[in-house]
């Protein structure tokens, strides 16, 4: 929980990792290049005081994760999002099993998600069912640009993807997190294109598609899809750190998201350990749309910040929220615009 100026914020970090990118686990030059690319994001978008050494970035101990997230990072609940990358890492980069071992030791702090890859066919469907039964999955993380042998990616609209989405429905896995947007060496930029979310979201209206990184740099494509698909959400991982180096760019991103989606479908994430939640939460609570941009985007209210920082994800995962930290949903009840609703021309 974070408190500032008499306001208290319930914090759910919707996207964290427990990865192992140490040289001993790197299978080839792509494994080394992948973590180096992550490190460049970390080093270039973090305040100087928050930058780690590359050695610290390769792997984090259980003690460090608990410290960074819960002791100093204000987080009430965090959700592991696995990224297997078994073509690049000997034991995988960040698997459900790795995450689950930590989540099992601290069930009051973590939720663990699973993953699937349609290129695994029937065997993969059986593995998904086993994962769901083992870890009581409520969500999965998908990585459409992941390499598998000669294949350099897949689409949500592929026939086999539909088989897996049907399986998710059958198993009660409703939260489909999908990395769409920023490319990472050596993965293919076009395999992260957000366009295939449109068809899948229309075909599976009972599933929720949380588009991690909100499709950046294809923000406009994402917004036009999300405005017509009420089951599409925006994850702020990677977008939020621009609040430090490019605050006006971040104002544009959050302003567009609030204009097209409304404040109920935007979720906070640190993408730990690329970034730590402490400074991101402090900066976001202090943030406001610059005055000369408010004609289009308006201002961000405390209530909207509370929803984005935790209440929206809590709703998706049925996480109990202390009544005193919740907000009344005036947007749904009154029909009045909240925060940066559409503005009438002057």
From TrEMBL:
It comes from the Bacteria. Pfam families: Amidohydro_2. InterPro entries: Amidohydro-rel (IPR006680), Metal_Hydrolase (IPR032466). SUPFAM superfamilies: Metallo-dependent hydrolases (SSF51556). CDD domains: metallo-dependent_hydrolases (cd01292). Residues 12-319 form the Amidohydrolase-related domain. Keywords: Hydrolase. One of its GO terms (molecular function) is hydrolase activity. PANTHER family: BLR3681 PROTEIN. This is TIM-barrel fold metal-dependent hydrolase.
């Amino acid at each position: 929980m974070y408190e500032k100026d008499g306001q208290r914020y319930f914090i759910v970090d919707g996207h964290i990792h427990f990865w192992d990118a140490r040289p001993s686990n790197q299978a080839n030059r792509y494994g080394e290049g992948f973590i180096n690319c992550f490190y460049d994001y970390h080093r270039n978008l973090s305040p100087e005081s928050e930058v780690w050494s590359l050695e610290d970035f390769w792997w984090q101990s259980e003690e460090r994760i608990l410290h960074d997230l819960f002791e100093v990072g204000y987080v009430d609940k965090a959700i592991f999002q696995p990224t297997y990358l078994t073509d690049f890492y000997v034991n995988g980069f960040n698997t459900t099993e790795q995450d689950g071992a930590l989540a099992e030791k601290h069930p009051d702090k973590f939720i663990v998600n699973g993953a699937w890859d349609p290129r695994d066919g029937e065997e993969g469907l059986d593995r998904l069912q086993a994962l769901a039964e083992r870890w009581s999955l409520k969500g999965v993380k998908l990585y459409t640009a992941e390499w598998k042998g000669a294949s350099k990616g897949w689409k949500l609209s592929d026939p086999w993807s539909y088989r897996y989405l049907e399986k998710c429905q059958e198993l009660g896995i409703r939260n489909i997190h999908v990395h769409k947007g920023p490319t990472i060496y050596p993965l293919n930029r076009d395999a992260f294109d957000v366009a295939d979310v449109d068809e899948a979201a229309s075909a599976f209206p009972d599933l929720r598609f949380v588009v991690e990184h909100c499709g950046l740099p294809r923000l406009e494509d994402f917004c036009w899809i999300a405005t017509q698909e009420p089951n599409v959400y925006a994850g702020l991982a990677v977008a939020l750190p621009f609040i430090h180096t490019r605050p006006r760019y971040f104002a544009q991103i959050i302003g567009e998201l609030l204009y097209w989606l409304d404040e109920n479908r935007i979720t906070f994430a640190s993408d730990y350990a690329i970034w730590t939640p402490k400074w991101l939460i402090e900066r976001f609570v202090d943030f406001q749309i610059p005055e000369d941009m408010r004609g289009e985007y308006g201002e961000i209210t405390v209530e909207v910040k509370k929803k984005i920082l935790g209440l929206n994800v809590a709703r998706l995962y049925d996480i109990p929220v202390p009544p005193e930290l919740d907000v009344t949903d005036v947007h749904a009840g009154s029909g009045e615009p909240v925060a940066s609703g559409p503005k009438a021309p002057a």
